[in-house]
Amino acid sequence: MHLARPLPRPHRDDLLIAFIGLAGGLVLWFFGLYVTGSHLFGQRWASLIPLTVMAAMEALRRTAPQTALIVGTATIAANQLTNGNLATVLMFTDVVYAAVVYGTPASARRIPYTTGLVTVAITVVLLIWWQNAIALLVGVLSGMISFLPALTGAIVRNHRQAADAARLRAEQTALLAEMDRAQAVTAERARMARELHDMVANHLSAIAIHSTAALSIDEPGTTRQALTVIRENSVAGLAEMRRLIGLLRDSDTDSGPAAAPRLSGLAALVAQARANGASSGLTFTLDDSRAQDEEPLPAPVELAAYRIVQESLTNALKHAGAGPVGVFLARDAKALTVRVTSRYGERPGPRAPGSGAGLVGMRERVALLGGEFAAGAVADGDGDGARIWQVRAVLPAEERTPDA
Predict the structure, then answer these.
(1) What H or E segment, with its residue span, contains residue 93?
(2) Are 280 and 349 in contact (CB under 8 A)?
(3) What is the mean pLDDT of each run of 10 residues along the chain (404 residues)?
């Protein structure tokens, strides 16, 4: 058994409108101000019934607009059988308006056309029946109390929908702007993390290795050599940190070669790694097969290649077995290939711990430029079955995005 759904609670403003309409109708009725003369129900009290029912429909104009329109239409027809009340007519026009503004989209589209057709039909029928100009006047009045309020409601509803759509677009634009800002902040933080790791990790790794050696080997010469390397790397690391802090504080992006190293500084980078890794049995070589007269690479490409080599040398200092560490560079018309190899396997002596952030940073740098990156153990080309650790990056000779 399904119970009838109760009507929703009237809106406070609608109750006020209904009260004002009923009070105004009562004032007109008290003074005997009627719309028409005697009709089928000419009793004075008869016009109060349509007035009261229409006031009740006004209370439902917002919460139940379709119900209010249906009952209101029947009530305005019944009002014509009495002496009539102007307040009843005015409240009906408001009910029609509210049915378009607050009703369903289908009702909002249908009511203006329906009231327009009804107005035209009334006018034509009365012209045929009465055959005088009064029929036109009645048609105009019927249009004023039905079609005109419906048309006004349609215009108001369209303006409200346009305003809501504009507000929604503004909110979506603000949301997209906030998402872009958050993504930009995240990307900048990731870039800062890569720069900080690549600039400082090399020096800190050397400090960790040589400090461990100085503590574990009780030889004055070894200790002095380790302390010398520690001092050099701590000074260099401090200088790199100062450069990075200055770069972050300075709004000018052109901070010189120190802030954006280029491939011309690889020789000095390899020489520093050679000094840091000598005590671990590591030898470092640089093989740059690029032509000297080639056009320079874009700064982001050179920076990425430099940082990849720097991080690879740092990883070699931490993990590589004693033996050669090779840095190879080659370039063709489309790409720059960077390859760093080292002995794969355990090695004796002190080692620095690794976090895995270096490989992630290198992979991110290559992905941002739309290149290719691979790191892992591969077979040595000498044919003796040995395996080496290889980092290989292919960077486009022209700066581009991954989607380009």
Answers:
(1) helix 86-102
(2) yes
(3) 64 93 93 71 85 95 94 92 91 96 94 94 91 88 94 95 92 88 82 70 67 66 70 69 65 48 86 81 88 79 89 84 90 90 69 64 87 88 74 84 52
pTM value? 0.55
DSSP state of 253: S
| Residue recorded with tokens 């009645």 | 138
- Listed by start position, the domains of the chain span 12-169, 174-396
Asked if 360 and 339 count as a contact pair (C-beta separation under 8 A), the reply is no
> Which tokens is 26 given?
């009562």
Task: Considering the domain delimited by 174-396, tell me its CATH architecture.
Answer: 2-Layer Sandwich (3.30)
Q: What is the pLDDT of residues 142-154, one digit of tens each?
A: 999 999 999 999 9
Q: Is 378 helix (H, G, I), strand (E, B) or coil?
A: strand
Given a contact cutoff of 8 angstroms between Cβ atoms, the answer to whether 175 and 130 are in contact is no
Which residues, 6+ apart, have CB-to-CB distance to 280 below 8 Å? 209, 317, 322, 347, 349
Q: Are 10 and 63 in contact (CB under 8 A)?
A: yes
Cα–Cα distance between 70 and 300 in angstroms, integer? 72
Tally: H helices and E strands in the chain:
11, 5
